[in-house]
Fold 3-dehydroquinate synthase.
Amino acid sequence: MHETVNVNLPGRAYDVLIGTGLLAEAGTHIAPLLKRSRVVIISDENVAALHLDSLQDGLRANGIDSAAMTLPAGEATKSWPHLMACTDWLLDQKVERGDIVVALGGGVIGDLVGFAAAILRRGVRFVQVPTSLLAQVDSSVGGKTGINARHGKNLIGAFHQPSLVLADVGVLGTLRPRDFLAGYGEVVKYGLLGDAAFFDWLEGQGPKLAAGDVPARIEAVRRSVQMKADIVSRDETEQGERALLNLGHTFCHALEAATGYSDRLFHGEGVAVGCALAFALSARLGLCSQEDPSRVRAHLRDMGMKTDLADIDGELPGPQALLELMGQDKKVVQGQLRFVLARGIGDAFVTGDVPTQAILDVLRDG
Ligand SMILES: NC(=O)c1ccc[n+]([C@@H]2O[C@H](COP(=O)([O-])OP(=O)(O)OC[C@H]3O[C@@H](n4cnc5c(N)ncnc54)[C@H](O)[C@@H]3O)[C@@H](O)[C@H]2O)c1
């Protein structure tokens, strides 16, 4: 049983299937894309140990052979050395222009393997099989691929849309609770940026969803993916509206840099803290009511998530140093920082017009 969301890009439209049992059915869904009955799969060691066999069995059931490569888990894998290892292995496997590369894993694997597919032989097709909540609701959809640089996150990459996304919510059951909740940070982001009714729904259903309720998980992933698909269809390369999806990310990227992309702060946790800070900044600037940031923080707290800078383990640089780290963000335009702020829950907008002192104040109080 699955739901389907279509990403409607001219000439590159694709489906995102969301449901259970999709790994077992992978062969049925991937076969129509193939020119020969063989795929290559790249995964990370955690995911491969848990789910690679099911995927390969699902492919074999449709007569599809597969070879697999396993990389270390973690953000550090989104780097030049691992990109090179991927492309070398894909060439060793004699992957041709018409073949399909499968990315089985969280956002790290999806971003890295998508980028490898984008540059291999000037572009081969790939299928995303996202296994973390974050990857199912966000990173597997929309075609942003890439790796991190010494200068910051995701600074080297390409837009390369997948040919299909198989989001099997059954695999979310093996996520560590902390990884699940990190992904929930991106789910909340959708409600906050453009769908107040979804945020209301999450306030009611969030705890059930975290406890493992499958229909609630399917619904949360479907609504998130639908919103992302709609935005990406209208603005694939982020000339305008797509930037709304970066709610919380300018703060998040600075915090990730400050914590060395380490276990101190997962990306989705940084997004949640970043959303709380973006609402605090919006209220400070008189754009939304004071109740809005309180409501955002209350929901994140109810879910057992990090909401404040003080929730991040260890020392953080001061406000001025964090501000400088924000200056490395891709969203800097002509030297000016771009922020996603909100007029209320579900009503975000992008602006470059934010007084530096207000940002520093929020960072000092956050
Ligand atoms: N391309 C985009 O549009 C986009 C959007 C948002 C985030 N991202 C990127 O996504 C990355 C974060 O993604 P993530 O949170 O999925 O991180 P991740 O890929 O590191 O996965 C988190 C952890 O969960 C493990 N894991 C994944 N699925 C599992 C499962 N089913 N069972 C058990 N363990 C599992 C992984 O091995 C890893 O240890 C960041 O690099 C971020 O920049 C990209």
